[in-house]
Design goal:
mainly alpha; 2 domains; two-stranded antiparallel sheet; 10 helices; 62% helix
Length: 297
């Protein structure tokens, strides 16, 4: 009998299974993308064709493969549907694999996947409808609190919390805050201040409340350090580049402004996976080291 192969979490068969599970989750994310802006249930009714209304069967819902087999058309009425369906499924599957390979089978990988799914949904909803449903930043925030709770449990409050000290009459007094709470306050506060200042300058709303809530959630997840700062810088840079390109190509479609949420979502997907490596590299361009504290994810 040949020796059995060691089945680690990086074994191709396991990664293929993880991709398939992620792609199936991506199919659910497509439902969220189309139904959440309309305030419809994402559970009922079951998936159906948006053209003929026919309930879709198992063969119609095989992630990625169904789109390729039927050439992006409904099997029942022949209506062509968007490339978004297989793209979101493939992207979600790939993100599941990347999170597992990067962090291993851990709570950090699970929270990264949860936040990544929320960011994918945010990207498409905000791009089309200029809104960010409250449930999505809330889910990211919950994941941040859970992950920070595990960190505090492992290292203890003294080592895990961000603390400030003051000495009065020879007695030292300390105040500590969890990194997630401090990151939430700093992230949301920064974007709230920017929104307030921009509204004074341009005399109109320059940033929606959804962007501020998303910033607070990402601040809680990335932590009050260089990782979130780089996340903010890269989001602004990406927004500026995209805005310039669209204006030059005149592809705004008549909108008064370009939503910032999709930029935050794209950069967030990258920073969640590789923020600890990207942040020191970017900050070194500004002459800063990496001692300002990294993020939890």
């Amino acid at each position: 009998m040949p020796p059995s192969l060691p089945l680690t979490y990086q074994h191709p068969i396991i990664l293929l299974f993880v991709f398939a599970f992620g792609a199936t989750t991506g199919s659910f994310l497509n439902v969220c993308i189309f139904r959440m802006p309309e305030r419809e249930s994402v559970i009922r009714p079951p998936s159906r064709c948006g053209s003929c209304g026919t309930r879709l069967g198992v063969v119609d819902l095989i992630p990625v493969l169904s789109a390729l087999i039927f050439w992006f058309r409904c099997r029942h009425c022949g209506h062509r549907y968007s490339w978004q369906y297989p793209f979101v499924e493939a992207l979600t599957g790939a993100y599941f694999v990347l999170a597992l390979v990067t962090f291993g089978p851990s709570l950090r990988a699970l929270v990264t996947i949860l936040a990544g799914c929320c960011l994918i949904v945010i990207f498409f909803i905000d791009l089309r409808h200029l809104i960010i449903p409250n449930e999505l930043p809330a889910a990211i925030l919950l994941g941040a609190f859970v992950l920070d709770g595990e960190y505090l449990y492992q290292v203890g409050w003294t080592q895990g919390a961000v603390r400030w000290g003051e000495q009065v009459a020879g007695q030292a007094y300390w105040v500590g805050l969890p990194r997630s709470v401090l990151g939430m306050v700093l992230g949301g506060g920064l974007f709230l201040f920017i929104a307030w200042g921009a509204s004074l300058i341009w005399r109109k709303e320059a940033m929606g409340g959804g962007d501020i809530k998303l910033a607070a959630a990402m601040g809680a997840l990335l932590g009050p350090g260089y990782v979130f700062l780089v996340y903010f810088i890269l989001s602004v840079c990406l927004g500026a580049v995209v805005g310039i390109i669209l204006r030059l190509l005149r592809l705004k479609g008549g909108r008064e402004h370009i939503p910032f949420g999709p930029m935050m979502a794209v950069v967030g997907l990258v920073m969640l996976l590789w923020g600890d490596a990207i942040a020191p590299l970017i900050m070194s361009l500004y002459g800063a080291g990496s001692g300002g504290g990294g993020g939890q994810v």
